[in-house]
Specification:
mainly beta; 367 residues; 49% strand; six-stranded antiparallel β-sheet; single chain; six-stranded mixed beta barrel
Length: 367
């Protein structure tokens, strides 16, 4: 129920926010805030190479489990916890840098809404010519071959979606290349001297200026402490491009302590950051720490991150339109939407102290 309410509340505010105009270890800048580095240039280049050569995208680190000893892990057998984090959708806004409020020769801008489903990616441009595509295009993330499709919008402005083959849906890696392009029509003469119309896609000049994310997260669990005082702590944090949580942490020192924390975004004074030279990053992390008086400690961390990473392609390539006809795509700016979910369970034995704080818990290790 919490997740459903979260999605509804986030989507209600989505439009208002837009109108307001190698991966390293993340860490908390302040309670409820998460710092995540830009997407690695090497990783982006590897993604491009694999995608355009129609190779499987298999770059995710997915789930990790670490234990200092077998005993440390076995001490928690039968202990059930719930820790997860997920970015379910994002709306990316494009704008032309040369357009001002008095200039009506250049379209004001457009948005592309992305919805991340279990095995599909749905893309819904706000400006679209074909009425049949008003609901967007639904791409299978494990297709038999690479998909490169031009979706035409108003004023000949549209996007090319490049969706590669992903190795495994279990890895929780979803990615696509989004290229803002303008439809260019021109005449050519064939060998018989007859003129005919051709079309190609050129760089439209539109660039990503901001993005809004819809996310969910939960961290809850109980530490059975055998009648003595134990500790349970939960924390949820988000990147600066996302609304911070209303409640960032929950902690309990008690017999069989229990905590439960659900992400509820705080939109007070929050405005999506305008893009500069860096990536736009939507990231949400949930962490649960359980500590028994005997010293056995369990830390569960889950994080989902969506990078919007600008790439300038220096070569032309081919795509198809929605009717299946081939069309040439000129070099220019594109944006890699790269979403990766990772989780980790860490088991250890450490001295139990009542003065221990949530910040002492280890964070997600470097993928």
């Amino acid at each position: 129920m919490h997740a459903v309410l979260l999605i509804v509340s986030s989507l209600i505010l989505l439009g208002a926010q837009l109108q307001a105009e190698d991966t390293e270890v993340s860490h908390h800048a302040e309670p409820g805030r998460l710092v995540v580095p830009n997407l690695s240039g090497d990783l982006a280049e590897e993604w491009l190479q694999d995608a355009f050569k129609d190779r499987l995208i298999d770059l995710s680190k997915s789930h990790k489990e670490r234990a200092e000893s077998a005993e440390d892990k076995s001490a928690w057998e039968g202990n059930r916890t719930t820790t997860w984090a997920r970015i379910s959708a994002a709306t990316i806004r494009f704008k032309h840098p040369a357009r001002d409020i008095h200039d009506d020769k250049i379209p004001a801008g457009f948005e592309v809404a992305l919805e991340f489903q279990e095995k599909h990616l749905v893309a819904r441009p706000s400006s679209i010519n074909n009425r049949k595509l008003q609901g967007g295009l639904r791409f299978v993330l494990d297709p038999p071959k690479l998909r490169k499709v031009f979706i035409e919008g108003k004023d000949d402005i549209g996007i090319v979606m490049l969706v590669p083959r992903h190795a495994s849906m279990e890895q929780d890696l979803k990615s696509a290349l989004i290229c803002p392009r303008k439809l260019h029509r021109y005449q050519v003469m064939d060998r018989h001297g007859r003129k005919r119309w051709e079309k190609s896609l050129v760089d439209s000049g539109f660039r990503v200026v901001r993005a809004v994310f819809v996310a969910e997260a939960q961290a809850s669990g109980k530490a059975l402490s055998g009648g003595a005082v134990g500790r349970a702590a939960a924390a949820i944090s988000t990147s600066p491009d996302m609304p911070p949580p209303q409640e960032a942490a929950d902690e309990s020192y008690a017999k069989d302590p229990h905590v439960s924390l659900v992400y509820r975004p705080s939109f007070k004074d929050f405005v999506p950051l305008a893009k500069d030279k860096d990536d736009i990053i939507g990231a949400i992390q949930a962490q649960l720490v359980l500590h028994r008086p005997a010293g056995y400690k369990k830390t569960v961390t889950a994080r989902d991150t969506l990078w919007i990473h600008e790439i300038n392609l220096d070569q032309s390539w081919s795509a198809i339109d929605v009717d299946g006809l081939p069309i040439r795509v000129a070099p220019g700016a594109c944006y890699l939407a790269y979403k990766e979910g990772v989780s980790e369970e860490y088991y250890s034995k450490e001295e139990f102290a009542l003065r221990e704080t949530a910040s002492s818990a280890p964070n997600l290790s470097s993928p």
